[in-house]
């Protein structure tokens, strides 16, 4: 089956929630002699079930032998290591990279920063230094290396579709000085030539909008099986939402933002004007 172990873990958790249906966690847990909290952790991606526990659970659910083999294989793939796990990353960031690596579509709203998949190395170094969450140059270079590795996704034939909604502050803010921002914005113009990438800017003149009281967020869509995850990144913690109601709310926000944003063509014109301004002494 292969693929991202993070996505396999997420898929397995979805399957287990679906199979349990309306049964109580305590009822299911009692039948296979584990704690109810353990079953809950299996369903929330916090913990992978052991193979024998998973088989017992599937038997309890009356799953066919063929379907059992598929889900047991899914569990084996979920236990493998992704390339990002050789780095010293926190669990939340590792989870995001694992999901990103297999998403079929990524929709991102950014209020302050260029999306990581479009950043230049010098822009990355500036924001990592400014965040003051890493202590040494070596740690910063490791984070840059991870982000550059993530950008290899654009060399794949099955690269995701990416729709980026950027507040105008993203392109106007002086990150690292004029030369750094000039190169970063011209890099944005370059990546926008990829037919799978669409960039729109929400201009200052749009005024107050639906996402102003929240922060940046990313909607990741997966096709096989079909499910969606919203990622909310904070300074000290991050949140993943996959409840259908939560996902629908963020889709509404994206629809509102897209209606306010400049067209892709006019967005690129604005980015070029700002980049040209940064290029002048």
Short description, anyone?
By secondary structure, the chain is α/β, with parallel strands linked by helices.
Give an overview of the whole structure.
With 281 residues, this protein is α/β, with parallel strands linked by helices. It folds into two domains: 74 residues, 434 Repressor (Amino-terminal Domain) (Orthogonal Bundle); 190 residues, 2-Layer Sandwich (Endonuclease, Chain A), CATH 3.30.870. Helices cover 51% and strands 14% of the residues. A six-stranded mixed sheet has the order 3-2-1-4-5-6, with helices on both faces. A hairpin with a 4-residue loop joins β5 and β6. 30% of the residues are buried.
What is the general shape? Answer: elongated
Order of helices and strands: HHHHHHEHHEHHEEEEHH
Q: Helix share of residues?
A: 40-55%
Q: Calculate Rg over CA atoms.
A: 21 Å
**Main beta-sheet strand count, sense and barrel state:** 6 strands, mixed
Distance between the termini: 55 Å
β-strand amount? 5-15%
Uncertain runs = none
Give the mean pLDDT. 91
- Which class of secondary structure composition applies to the elements? alpha/beta
Q: What do we call the CATH topology of the largest domain?
A: Endonuclease, Chain A
CATH architecture of the largest domain: 2-Layer Sandwich
Number of domain units: 2
Assembly state of the chains shown: single chain
Q: Give me the count of strands.
A: 6
Feature tags:
14% strand, 281 residues, 51% helix, Endonuclease, Chain A, single chain, six-stranded mixed beta sheet, alpha/beta, 12 helices, 434 Repressor (Amino-terminal Domain)
């Amino acid at each position: 089956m292969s693929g991202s172990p993070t996505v396999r873990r997420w898929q397995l958790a979805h399957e287990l929630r679906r199979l349990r249906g309306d049964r109580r966690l305590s009822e299911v847990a009692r039948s296979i002699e584990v704690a109810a909290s353990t079953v809950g952790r299996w369903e929330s991606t916090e913990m992978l079930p052991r193979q024998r526990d998973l088989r017992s659970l599937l038997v309890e659910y009356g799953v066919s032998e063929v379907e059992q083999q598929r889900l047991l294989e899914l569990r084996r793939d979920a236990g493998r290591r992704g390339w990002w796990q050789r780095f010293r990353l926190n669990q939340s960031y590792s989870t995001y990279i694992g999901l990103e690596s297999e998403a079929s579509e990524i929709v991102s709203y950014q209020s302050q920063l260029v999306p990581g998949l479009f950043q230049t190395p010098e822009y990355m170094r500036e924001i990592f230094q400014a965040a003051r969450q890493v202590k040494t140059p070596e740690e910063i270079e490791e984070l840059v290396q991870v982000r550059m590795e993530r950008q290899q996704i654009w060399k794949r034939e099955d690269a995701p579709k990416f729709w980026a909604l950027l507040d105008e502050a993203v392109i106007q803010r002086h990150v690292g000085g004029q030369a750094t921002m000039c190169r970063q914005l011209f890099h944005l113009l370059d990546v926008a030539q990829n037919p799978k990438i669409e960039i729109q800017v929400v201009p200052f003149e749009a005024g107050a909008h639906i996402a102003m009281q929240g922060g940046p967020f990313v909607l990741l869509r997966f096709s096989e099986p079909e499910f969606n995850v919203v990622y909310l990144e904070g300074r000290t913690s991050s949140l993943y939402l996959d409840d259908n109601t939560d996902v629908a709310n963020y889709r509404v926000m994206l629809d509102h933002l897209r209606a306010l944003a400049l067209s892709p063509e006019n967005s690129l014109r604005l980015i070029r004007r700002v980049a040209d301004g940064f290029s002048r002494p």
